Amino acid sequence: MALTKRDLFQKRRQRVRSKLRKVNVGRARLSVHRSNKNISVQLIDDVNGVTVASASSLEKDLGVVGKNNVEAAAKVGAAIAERAKKAGVEEAYFDRGGFLFHGRVKALAEAAREGGLKI
């Protein structure tokens, strides 16, 4: 039985999450979701089970609605870094889910690092 693309994605996602659970020592998790048109990110406190901050390319105030490119992802990354600082979070683990660390996901992570978030 051949694995579908979705099956392979789910396997990658579970592999990333299980590795993060092993090393997580109370740091927040920066979880990324990328669709064909948009990208969104959440800063999650797994100990308390709450979302501390979030940002998305769908937000009108970021000015990237409708742009599905690397620049839009970088603006979202800068926004999450700023919101994390306001929430008092300085360090986080980067949870790329099943997405490869390439293109928009990489641009988001680098922009968050430049914004002062330690990943």
From TrEMBL:
Keyword line: Ribonucleoprotein, Ribosomal protein, RNA-binding, rRNA-binding
Gene this protein is translated from: rplR
SUPFAM superfamilies associated with the record: Translational machinery components (SSF53137)
Listed GO biological process terms: translation
GO MF annotations, alphabetized: 5S rRNA binding; structural constituent of ribosome
InterPro entries xrefs: Ribosomal_L18, Ribosomal_uL18_bac-type, Ribosomal_uL18_bac/plant/anim
Pfam families in the record: Ribosomal_L18p (PF00861)
Residues that span the membrane, as ranges: none
Task of the protein: This is one of the proteins that bind and probably mediate the attachment of the 5S RNA into the large ribosomal subunit, where it forms part of the central protuberance.
GO cellular component terms, A-Z: cytosolic large ribosomal subunit
Family: Belongs to the universal ribosomal protein uL18 family.
Family matches, as PANTHER family: 39S RIBOSOMAL PROTEIN L18, MITOCHONDRIAL, LARGE RIBOSOMAL SUBUNIT PROTEIN UL18M
Record-given protein name: Large ribosomal subunit protein uL18
Quaternary state and interactors: Part of the 50S ribosomal subunit; part of the 5S rRNA/L5/L18/L25 subcomplex. Contacts the 5S and 23S rRNAs.
NCBIfam families: L18_bact
